[in-house]
UniProtKB/TrEMBL annotation:
This is L-threonine aldolase. Transmembrane segments: none annotated. One of its GO terms (cellular component) is cytosol. Gene3D superfamilies: Aspartate Aminotransferase, domain 1, Type I PLP-dependent aspartate aminotransferase-like (Major domain). Residues 26-287 form the Aromatic amino acid beta-eliminating lyase/threonine aldolase domain. The keyword Mitochondrion does not apply. It comes from Micromonospora avicenniae. Pfam families: Beta_elim_lyase (PF01212). GO terms for biological process: glycine biosynthetic process; L-threonine catabolic process. Keywords: Pyridoxal phosphate. GO terms for molecular function: L-allo-threonine aldolase activity. Its cofactor is pyridoxal 5'-phosphate. Belongs to the threonine aldolase family.
Length: 367
């Protein structure tokens, strides 16, 4: 598995054209990019000041929040946000989506570390509605919305649906928390600014390595009371690091250089998705995409498609779409497509032409 991953990364890095994703950054690439995020002749942070404090101030302003706190990981930030809701309300249950990050990707830290439990307002592949929140059978401390809901296909509610759902959460006495790891690309679909979106919530978490290309790091934004609580629990969880200036500077670089381009990524993702949908047996979802990421299905085994992506990259220096996984339908596989900077260079005609060559390689591998 390690050798396959290294071979894939090498093929992507050597490709002249990349449709889905971005060219993998080396450590040298990251170091070179740090200068764009701040003054390298300045002093590094000391337990959270300096460039870390600058990131916190910048994100608080972007989200229209009173304060923001830098965390080494989003998992830690969200655990603290939900613990805060439970401690303030005395309710040890949070309303989550079964496909949400806390349920799928955090090894049940909510229960094991926080002593909390979850309830599901819905199992449908979308965020919960106002009616579903109102119908919850037990009191909850926090209602979590993941914007967009990645494991349902990067889907978003409409603005009106989100407003109504947040109001319903408050009507039952719950806080509203946004898992906004990818909230950066949600503004075009919701047709509102980051501060307007975050203004619907009591707290919002954002990531810097997702979408913005940072090294690592996250921020939890909300009230000054939440921030004070978060700093205490960040320390208790082991997140009070001595220095985090590389992550902080790369976050600032992403905010300056990548964030302004995200709406363009989202617009072009719709062009790419429409072109991919014309390939034989292809299906995209959502159609059109809500963000610059969406799902693609093709009628071939995952190994065949992954081998085809690698073969095309190594032979023609063109990276199409990788990361294929089997689905519940035999012989049909699914991948996530991410249209970022390199993908902007692809016209709809390019997508169809290379897609047909990709499928030809896949067909040859199956024969």
């Amino acid at each position: 598995m390690h050798d396959t991953r290294q071979r894939r990364l090498a093929a992507q890095a050597a490709s002249d054209r990349i449709l889905s994703g971005a060219r993998p950054a080396t450590m040298r690439d990251h170091l070179a990019a740090l200068a764009a995020g701040g003054d390298l002749d300045g002093q590094p942070d000391f337990y959270g000041d300096g460039p870390v404090a600058t990131v916190e101030e910048r994100v608080a302003e972007l989200l229209g929040a009173e304060a923001a706190v830098f965390f080494p990981t989003g998992t830690m930030a969200q655990q603290v946000a939900l613990r805060y809701g439970a401690d303030r309300s005395g309710r040890r249950t949070a309303a989550l989506h079964p496909l949400g990050h806390q349920e799928v990707h955090e090894r049940h830290a909510l229960a094991h570390l926080g002593g909390l439990r979850s309830t599901w307002p819905t199992t449908m592949p979308r965020n919960p509605t106002a009616d579903e929140i109102s119908a919850l059978a037990e009191p909850v401390s926090t209602v979590v919305f993941e914007l967009p809901l990645r494991d349902a296909g990067f889907v978003l509610p409409s603005w009106d649906e989100l407003v109504a759902a947040c109001a319903a959460a408050r009507a039952i006495g719950a806080r509203v928390h946004f898992d906004g790891a990818r909230i950066w690309e949600s503004t075009p679909y919701l047709a509102h600014t980051l501060s307007e979106i975050a203004g619907l919530a009591d707290s919002t978490y954002v990531s810097f390595y997702k979408t913005l290309g940072g090294i690592s790091g996250a921020v939890l934004a909300g009230t000054t009371e939440l921030a004070a609580y978060a700093r205490v629990w960040r320390h208790r969880y082991g997140g009070q690091l001595f220095q985090q200036w590389p992550a902080a500077l790369s976050a600032l670089a992403g905010l300056d250089r990548v964030l302004p381009r995200v709406p363009e990524y989202v617009r072009h993702a719709r062009t790419v998705a429409a072109a991919l949908a014309t390939l034989p047996g292809a299906r995209v979802y959502p159609d059109p995409p809500h963000t610059h990421q969406f799902r693609l299905w093709l009628p071939h085994p995952a190994k065949t498609l992954n081998d085809a992506a690698l073969a095309l990259a190594e032979k023609e220096k063109v990276w199409f779409v990788g990361g294929w996984q089997e689905t519940e339908v035999p012989g049909v596989s699914r991948a996530e497509v991410t249209v970022a900077g390199p993908g902007l260079e692809w016209s709809a005609e390019d997508v169809v032409e290379i897609g047909e060559r990709f499928l030809h390689v896949a067909g040859a591998l199956r024969d």
